[in-house]
Each structure stands twice: as structure tokens, then as C-alpha cells.
# Entry
Amino acid sequence: MKRLFTILFLAMLFRQPANGQEYFGQNKVQYDLFHFAVYKTPHFNIYYYKEEADAAKTIAQMAEVWYDRLSSVLKFEFNQPNPIILYASPEHFAQTDIIPGIIGEGIGGVTEGERDRVIIPLSANWRDNNHVLGHELVHAFQYRMLSSGDSTSIRNVANLPLWMIEGLAEYLSIGSYDPNTTMWLRDALETDHFPTLQKMTVDYHYFPYRWGEAFWAYVAGRWGDGVISPLFRYSSIMGFDYAIPRVLGITTREFNTQWEADCRAAYKNYLQSYTGGLSAGNEMFEDRKAIQEQDFAPAISPNGKYVVFLSARNIFNIDLYLADARTRKIIRKLKTQRSDAHGNALRLIESAAAWSPDSKSVAYFSYEGGEHYLRVQEAESDKNTRRVKLEKFQAVLNPAWSPDGKKIAFVGVSQGSSDLYVYDFRKEEITRLMDDSFSDLQPSWSPDSKSLVWITDRYSGTNLSKLQIGNFDVARINVSTKEMRQIQLFPGVNHINPQYTRDSTLYFIAAPDGANNIYRINSKTGEIERVTREATAAAGITDISPAMSIAIKTGDVIYSVFKKSGYQLFAIRQKEIKAVPVSRNEEFSKDAGMLPPLQNRDDQKVMEYTVAPQNRVIADSSIMKAPYKPQLALSSISNAGIGIGVGPYGAGLGGSVNMIFSDMLDEHIVYGAIAASGTIQDIGGIVGYLNQRHRLSWGLSLSHIPYSYYNYYASYTVDSVDGVPTLLYNLDNYVLREFNDAVTAIAYYPLSRVYRIESGFGVTFLNYSYVKYRDIYVADATGYPLYQIDRQKEKLPAPGGYQYGTASLAFVADDSKYGFTSPLDGYRFRLETDAIFGDYKFTSLQGDFRAYKYVKPVSFAARFAHYGRYLGQANDSLTIAPLTIGTDYLIRGYNYYSIDYAESPTVGSTSPTIDRLFGSKYTIMNLEIRLPLSGPREIAPIKSLALPSTLQLFFDGGVTWGSSGPTLKWTTDYETLAFNPAHFPVFSAGASIRVNILGAIVLEGYYAIPFQRPLHNPFNHQQVVVQNRLSRGVFGLLLYPGW
# Structure
């Protein structure tokens, strides 16, 4: 929205549509109105609202604990409080104005570098809340360290690879024990793809969070925490290739070799240990073609016939798929609310779907129009049979359908804490099973539908008043009496995914040896038995994501395994399950969960506060509450260069300054820009205000923009100089200045993620000044000017000014999926009308429709657009600049600047070849086949993130007309096109390559055959065409993303 000012407020009224990128785009919808207040602590200001007030106070205390830890390790202190903006849920977080653009699922928080704002949502458990807060505060320290350094600034972030930035945040917030990261290392060792630091920098498949954490753990383990700060600083100045030898004393080549060797040694015993007697799952989909086909969060039907799961097989998003669990064939993608224009999220990355007992329907949660819903739909037909609105929850997840079919248990979240609830289908009532500050997740029914098992941190020492957060244990609760008890499993270990089979065997996932695998409690003996032993882990996207599903009637198991840098589903039939007993009190080696080196230095503060934290909890009296009062502060400044001087026409200025001011929440934005080029009269500027407080965003602007037009004439006169007749050279400079003063108002209302309404109103005043400057020089006998003797200024009669107003209304849709250089799938359209009144009167109508269909490996794209002026002075081309299709963005090969005299002879006072490209109305159509050439290897044959590119085959066409209609006739005849003034349609075909250069600009080079330019049509057989026909096509260059 910030760039809306430069787009809408600086645009001239009589423009035709620009390249089309600015007037599309998906919407961030602000469903809720948040009334913020502030908690102030010694080092932080926490911005929160009523629905999260209690949790915000805990976050404030956690932030101070993290400040003590990080300032000690990084040896850096804040000189002023750091802002933390807290949202009650990911759905609220997605509505923030601070982060531009759509916020995708899975983004747990953001720290922006302009004002060091930490923006985070509360999750469903305090363990994640604590980790995300610590992670983002590391970024705040990083930005402040760079900004305050003697030889660094925030721009030095560009010298740091992402794994170095994000990895440090992960290491300092998690420590060296992290089974969720060690599985990445073992996977790389198993497949012989252990990366070098250089490989981690250029290959995005090496997830920067996980591999960066492993890097920093290794550095701190070998050289101590004391090297963290200097290594980070030196890397930001010269890069890690320079910093590692300087700080660690070894080259990066030596580091790469030693790191891999130590990792192999650390996990050698685990990878080579005995696996006999255990179950070996069969891969569900052996025909997976690419790494992006990641499959996870499985839910098998009770009869074991079907499985629904999340997958990234669609390269543009993650969605639910239905497969036959026995034949292992994918049936289809389920039509869920994710694919609906009004749907926002499925909340399935940390959740999973649930099956009805008859294995016919699937239940899942969706977030639609700012509300949470429980949806039930038939798996085979996609027919929605139930849609239950769940009010007063900040988040809902983990549905579980009771075996008797009467109830669905789920997790409801508020104030950062999660509790269990049960929805009764017949009574249409919700029952709350507990009400406390503990984290309760992943409920699953007992076979008799009377009890639930779930994971909770209530039995592992969790005490929020002391900021102590324990692991997840498994517990059981009677739904009727609400009596609960802990199920004794592995002490001090995280447990997830508890599920029963029909004979009451309880399965779960745990990592007693540092690697997550499937275990069970034998219903007959009560013993714990180990079911799997994966080299990597049985795991989901996060460390507590659902990763296993049991068919309660058959006992079949489907689970996800991290393998080959992705998540794959494996299946074990009940009759194939093998298990070996393990003791609850066995002393397991946890080396598989430790990041190398296994023998760490003693001076490691990070190990101390992550393994045995001693928290200094600030008292409630140290937390001051204050109302939130919006105060504007400078957010950004750019193009800051200005100069002043004196020349022959008076004082002159040059340069420009653009500034944006905003409040802490970016609900109020003031934009100002000033530019100068020439004299004082040539100073222009704009000031605007944008209000994003509500769902309806609106803005106002005032602008003064001068335009100067110059004409030069030379003449000679003879006049007396010091009494001597002298030849004088006179240089006349005629300067016409147009002053464009405008008042503009805009409004923007998103109906959903896809649809929105835009409106605008503006009044423009145009005035002119006309001045002649004469510079007089003494000339020699040949007329050459020797030196200046005088300068004269004469004010000339200027054209009269005029005023006009405009009112606009547009309906816009955008459900397209972008592919680095242009959209590849989905659709866009825009319908707009503008009424012009005042000294000029007419109405403009615009329709722009674009559709894209990706059929791997290519995308088919089509555009049809009409823009026209109607009524009043619509056809007055002498006063109002005509519209044109003579631009490369609309029809390649017909840029009117490329048309020379040979193909545009003058007929009277006109040139038909050029004139037919102009009119008061036009219609265009474009067809393209887009083939990704370079980019992510999932969609392109050449892997390159720095320079993604696509090859296009295109066919363009269009026609203009004015008061008389177009002549809809195909012709390539030179005589007809060169001398007949009729508005014939023009067409071109050719090929182009678009390249995205470092994400900053998209460059397109094309070769077009313009069929209605005979001199440039190699297929034209008239004699006017030269023999080298291929060279007669047209080459061109565009600096726009593809339409």
C-alpha cells in the first residue's frame, strides 16, 4: 500500500493503463479491529490488545529473560527499548499492516530492519511462543549491532547469507540439542549430499534455518560462544570467506572438511546400529518426480482404505490430497476452502484432517472471512455436508472424530494457551474439558468414545509464573467426568501423536535416543515397544506437527519420514508390524539429537540457558501499562541527494528526497517527496496521508508537479557595442512551464483475498508560464560566438489554464500464482470506469481479463483487454492525448518509435502506418506459451535463483479506433497499409525471454514478426522486402514483468 501514493497520486489523469502490475495484486484483509495498549519493560515496549492481555504480560517477562541471555552472548546492549508487536493468533498476525504483502502459513514471526520491530503471533503452545520470541529477538540484536557498528550499517545484511542470519537465531534460541535439525544432517550423510558453506549459500534446498543452526552450533562447540559476535560482524563486512580464517584461524575449505568429518563421526554409531526386529515401512508413492512433492500430515480412514494428506505437489501451494492407501495411487486433490476465493487457511501444517467412522467424510478446520469453521465434506464427491462456525476462538486445530460418530474433539486456543473441547453434532454444543494455562494438543479418541488421549505439558514442570516450560507428555481424560491422568512413558522426552487401535494399543512418536520414531504400549503387557527406527526421523514440518495416523479398525499405520531433503509417506500394514520391547527407564544415548561437536567447550552460555535455564523473572511491578497513542516517526528515506547552484538563468536546484513516516503499527502513514531539476520554479513535490486503521483504507494527497518544455532558436543581428557596429549571435530559449496542482482521494476495500473495490476522486488545476531567455554573444566574421555580453528575460503570453476532476470506481480480482517473471496459473481481471468533468468531459471504460493455466512444464496465458473513452470530448485528440497500442507491453513489434519514414509515408498531413496505432479506444489480445528455463529445479531445467528466466512463444494483436469504427480486415499489403488511413487490426508473433535479475527487475528481450509492417515481415513476398528476411523482424526490450 505504501507505493500506492507514487502510483495513484503521481499518475496523470489522461493516462492509458500502465504495464498492469500495479493495478493487480492480492489483498490483505483486515477482518478485525485491534485496540492496542503497551506494556513497558526496561528493554522492550510490547504492543498488545485485550484478547491477549494476560499472555502479553508473560511475553514481556520472557523478552527480558531473552535480553539477559542474548546481551551476554553477543556482548551488546540496547540503547533504547525495542518494540514487540504481539498478535493473538496466526490469523490475526496475517492482518498486520506492518508487513507488506500476503503472509503465508508457517511464518512464525518477522523482525523488520527499518525500526527493529518484532512482530509475532501467539501459537498454540508456550514452548513455540518462547522459541519464536527468542528467535526474533536475535534478529533485533543483529540489526542493532549492524546499525550501531563503526564500519557497518543495516545495508551490511546483504553480505550475510540467509543461513548465517537465520541459523544464528535458531542456535541462540534452541541450543545444540535439536532432533528436528539433526535429522537433516543424517539425511545428508546418508545420501552423500553434505554441503559446503558455499553450497548452502546458493542452493535453497539446504534449509537455511536448519543448516545455519548446525553451523553455529559447530562453531560455538569448537571455539566457544565468544567467537559468535566477532564472526558475525566480520562476515557482515567482508563475507564469511574472509571472516572464518580471521576469527577461527582455518580456511573455509578446511572448515568444510572438518565439519563433515565430525558430523560423520558423531552419527556413525546411530546410522550403523542394529535395526533387526523392527517394522520397515513401504514408501507410499514411489513415483514422486521431484523434491517439491513433499507429503506430510497423513490421516488414514478407519477402514484403512483411504488416506488424506498434505502435499506440495502443486508447486504454488500446499493442499489436501486423497489417495488409495492400499494401491498407493493418488485419486485427486480435494476441493477445500484453500482453493476458494474467500478461504484463507486450512491450519493443517500443525494439524491434520479427521475421518468419519464410516470412512466416507473428512473433517478439517478453515478460516473464512475472519471466522473459524469446522467443515465436513464427502471424500469421494467433495460435497460439503456440514459447516459449523466456531466463535470466540483465536485458533482451532487437531480435529478428532469419535468412533461412535457423535462428536469431534479439537483444540481451541486463547491467550496463548490451548485447551481441549468437544463438539456434539446432535446437540450442536461445545464442551470445554479444561481451563488453564497449560498447553494441550493432539486429542485422539479411545475405541469406546469415552476418553481422549492427548499431549500436554502439565506434568513436566511447566510453570509460567517462573517461565518454566516442560516437555509434552501423553495423558488421558474421561470426557464425562473430566478426570485426567498421565500415561507414564519416557521421562524428560517430548511425545507427540498418541493414537489408539481397536484393541486399545496406544501408538505415539518420541525421541528418547534423540531421533523421533514410532513406539506403542502393548495393550496386553503394558510394555513400551519400539516400532520403527528411521535413519533420519518420523517427523512432520515442525517438531510437534502430526506425523502418524492409525486406522483404528485395521491397525494399519501411515507416517511421514524426513528423507532426501523432504517429507515422504510410508505405510505399514498391521500384519507387517514388528516391535521390540524397550524399558521406560532405559538410559538412552541422546547423541542422535545433539548437533556436533558432541564434546563441547566449557564456556558455552547457550548450552547453559537451553539445557538448565536459570530465569531472572522481572516482577509485575516492573511492567508498566500505557495506552497506545499513534506517533509518527521516520520509517524510510531514499534518493536523498540535493544540490544548489547559480547559473545563467538564476539559482538552480537538483536532486530529490522521498520520506515515509508512520506510526508503530503502520496504521497511519504520511508520505512526502520533493524533487528539483532546474530553477526554483521547477521544484515539485507531493505529500500524502494513508489511513489503514480499518478494513476500508483511504488516503489523501496534495501535489505540485511542474513540467518544462524547451525550444531553442538562433539568429544574428548587427548592433553597436561600445560604439562599434558588431555582429551578434542571439540564442533564444523559449521555456513553457506547466504547473500541475492536484488534490486526490482514494479508497480501497478488500472483499476477500482475491476481490476488492477501489475508488478515487481528484481535482487537477493546470496553469502555465511562458518565458523567453535571450543570450547575446559577440560573434566573429564566420558567425562563431566568442563571448557573452548580455542576457535578457522576456515574459510571454501563456496559454490559459484549465481545471478538471475525475471520479473512478473499479472492481478488481487477482487469484494468480506468480512464477518469478510472470504469472503461471490462476486468473486476474479489472473492470473500471472513470468520469471526467470540468473543462473536459468524457467517460472511460476499461476491462482487462487475464487467465493462466500451468500444465507442467509450460503455462498457457491469455489476455483480452479493452480501454475506451466515450461521450463528451472522448474523440478530441487535439486537446486530449490519444490512446495507443504502439507500445511493446501491449503489442510487441509495433512500438511507434521503431517505425521509420520508409514504412510510414505521409499522406496529406497524416501517416496511416502510425496513425492506426492511436485512437480514443482500443482492444488487444495476447496469447503466450511460457516455459520456465531457469529457476527452482522443481519447475525449470536449469537451476538458478539469482536469474530465473522463462521462454515465451507469443501471438499479439489489437486494433484502435475513434469516432469511426475499426476496419476488421486482415491485410499485409504494403500499399494498403502505407496509404489507406483505415484502422486495420495489427498482429505479431514471435519469441521472447524474460529474466528476473536478482529479484529487482524483470527484463524481456523479444523477436517479433509484425505482420502489418510489410518491411519487417519476413513472410511477405512483395518486392519491397529485402532478401534477408529473418533480419526484417523486430527486436525489442522491455523492463516489465510479464502480464
